Structure formats: structure tokens, C-alpha cells
Amino acid sequence: MNPEYEKIYLEAKKNWDDIAKPIDSLGTLEGDVAKLCAIKGSAEPPVLKKRALLVFGADHGVVKEGVTQTDSSVTRIVMQNFCTGNACTAIMAENANCDVYPVDIGMLQENNNDSDGTKDKTEKNSKEKSSGESENTNSSLKMHQINNRNIRHGTGDIFVEDAMIPEECRRAIEEGMNLVCELKELDYDIVLTGEMGIGNTTPSSALAALLLDKKAEEVTGRGAGLDEAGYKRKIEVVKEIIQRVQKNSSGDDEAFYYLYSAGGLEIAAMTGVFLGAEKYQIPAVADGVISLISAYIAYKLSPESKNYFLASHFPKEKAGQIILSVLDMKSVIDAQLALGEGSGGVMMLPLLDQAISVYQKMGTFEAYDIGKYERF
Predict the structure, then answer these.
(1) What is the DSSP letter of 364?
(2) Which of 57-71, 157-171, 199-213, 218-232 has the lowest mean pLDDT?
(3) Which residue spans within 29-119 are E strands per DSSP?
(4) How confident is the model at residue 112 (pLDDT cuts 50, 70, 90)?
(5) Mean pLDDT across the stretch 170-197?
(6) Which one of 40, 53, 170, 239 is CB 3.0 to 4.6 Å from 216, fit for a cystine?
(7) In whole angstroms, how far apart are CA 25 and each of 1, 162, 333, 355, 375?
(8) 11 among known catalytic residues
(9) How would you classify residue 194: left for phi > 0, otherwise alpha for psi between -120 and 50, otherwise beta?
(10) What pLDDT band is residue 289 in, cutting at 50, 70 and 90?
(11) Cβ neighbours, 10 Å, residue 233
(12) pLDDT (tens digit per residue) in 303-323
């Protein structure tokens, strides 16, 4: 850990202990506020005036394997709802004073719900631009429209082939980092991560199994909802993905190899966000299981990045719960959330506001002439 970061973190924790209330009585929020102080480089109360949610839209070839309740067309529909403010998390974000930026990082083209995943199509897609409302690739980041940062139109079917080629994965990571830089230049104080991609809990489960050396049954959940037959099918698909990836050798870093062979473009882009948080010294909030997978990959690629992200909630999906434990991170909310989209991060913002207000305004034991609690 950076010595200056650690110094400020400990100073902020001491400030909490001096405030006239029982020690650690605001729980995880006290540590999160101290972390915000350390990231900003001052033990003074952190400011979260400008907040941004990046929602990455991407589609997955593995949908054709029967692992979802809906088809890939829903990805674009929900992303368009973010533009109009009608998506679930967009409604909550308005209440939390959080700006929402929908980003097409890997959606299928409009009116195209198929991704055949062949290598020729992979290479072609990596050069194409998305059509329709997500044009204007070179324009600055904007709200109320889908920002086109498309790398390719949907991943390959990871049941039988790699999700993407390594170069596409690198580009998606870089795009996530670049977006953090853009938000920093726009004076945002915190970045939330969200995603929308039908089928993305399947690659997330496979990645969790590969990264954490777990069995498919230990990390595979029901996603947005599957009956018993669908759930069993999903577990079998994840098993096959694990076997395919493990038997193929690669000279790349293991975490990076798993990401491009079994991941998704939104997962890669959010990995870039967490790496960008470290690079540009801005806090990033991990949401549910898919976002936490990205945070864990960022940690594997750069262990110091862990100091720059917060965990919003305890995910319903088993893989997310395991990652929190492995990272030794505590989330603020435990409400059986399973929506994705950055919903937990948006819900977390008012709680951070409350904790920061106490840190800023409440007097000390000395000021109130009260005997101080001791830490044992």
C-alpha cells in the first residue's frame, strides 16, 4: 500500500474514533469514508458532489446455449431505456443525484440477435462501428444517448470458442480506463460501474470458477431467473466452458487469458474502470457479481487497484459472495439484490452521504466533554 495513502487512511480512522459515538458504530461506512479520504489525499471530509454511473452494454454468444430466460434483443431495449431515464437504475440514479452514461461496448447491431462467433466475423466486428443511435464515436461522453465505444458486436459463444481475441480484450480494458479519465476531466468525484448484457452471468460464473479454482456448481447462480431445468443446463454449460479454457494453453497472464477466452466486453471494460480508478486517483464502486468479477481481475492485474474501489452490496449470486470474501472486502448493503445495472452502487450513494455528513459535522468526545471510548 502506498505510504501516503495508508497514512491518510489511518488518520481518517482516528478521526472517526474521536467522534462522540461508539467506535465503529457506523460499521463498514466508516472504513469506506476513510478510503475515500485516502484516495483524495486528505483526511478532510470527502466530497461526492458529482457522481457518474457508467452502464456498459454488451451481448453474449453463449445465449444460444439456452442459459437465459430472454434473448439478446433485451440488452438494447434496456440500454435505450437508460437514455430516456426509464430503466430501473436510471430512475434510482435521478433520486441519488447521479449522472448516467450508457456505453455500447459490445452490443449486437440493431435487428441482429445472432452472433455466430467465427474468427472471420470476430475480426470483422472488431473493425466495424455500431449503427443507429450509438454513432458519433469521436464525440465526447454524453448522457441521454448510447455512447458508442463498441469493440465488436457481441462475443463468440464461449461454450465452443473464445469470447474475443486478445487485442479486442485489451481495447475494451483501455476503453474503460479512458472513460475514467474523461470523467475525471469532467470533475466527477466518484464512478459507479454497471452493466447490461443478457447472458452475462454465465461468463461471470465461468470466470469465477477459473480464477478461484471452484467447481461450476459452487459459483453458478440463476441469473435473472431460470427454472430447474434451465439452471441445470447453465451449470453444464459453465462446466464445458471451464474445461475448454483450461485445456488450451496461452502465454498471456492467466487472468487476462481467462478474460478474453471466457469473459465479456462489458466485463473487460469494467476491469478497465477499476484499473483507471487507481491510475487517475478516483474511487470506483463495484456493484454485483459481474462488476465484482471485473474488480477481481483488475486486482489480479494490479493488486494496488483494490485500494480504489468500494463494494456496494452483498450479491445474491454465489460467485460475487466468494469474491468479496477472497478480497476481504465488506459491502454496505445486504438486501438480496440481483438487478445489476449499477443498482447497488446507486443505492449506496445516499448512505455514503449520511456517513460523510457525520464525519464532517459531529463533534468530538473532547468538544462535548465526554469520556472517550477506547478501542480494544
Answers:
(1) B
(2) 218-232
(3) 51-58, 98-106
(4) low
(5) 97
(6) 239
(7) 26, 47, 15, 11, 12
(8) no
(9) beta
(10) very high
(11) 15
(12) 999 999 999 999 988 899 999
Q: Which residue has 431467473 as its cell numbers? A: 225
**Matching residue, cell 486486482:** 299
Cβ-based neighbour number of residue 335 at 10 Å: 10
Nearest-5° Cα angle at 290, 118 to 231:
75
Higher pLDDT, 88 or 134: 88
Q: What is the mean pLDDT of residues 99-105?
A: 98
DSSP 195-264: EE-TTTHHHHHHHHHHHHT--HHHH---TT---HHHHHHHHHHHHHHHHHHHHS--SS-HHHHHHHHH--
Closest CA to 288 of 55, 87, 74: 55
Which residues have a Cβ under 8 Å from the Cβ of 46 and sit 6 or more positions away?
33, 36, 37, 39, 40, 189, 356
Residues of the chain with pLDDT > 70, as a percent, come to: 92
Options 123, 182, 341, 366, the catalytic residue: 341
Closest by CA to 161, choosing from 77, 64, 49, is: 64
Contact partners, residue 228, CB within 8 Å, separation at least 6 = none
Contacting residues for 216 by C-beta, under 8 A, at least 6 apart? 205, 206, 209, 235, 236, 238, 239, 242
Rounded to whole angstroms, how far apart are CA atoms 236 and 216? Answer: 8
What count of other Cβ atoms lies within 10 Å of the Cβ of residue 69?
14
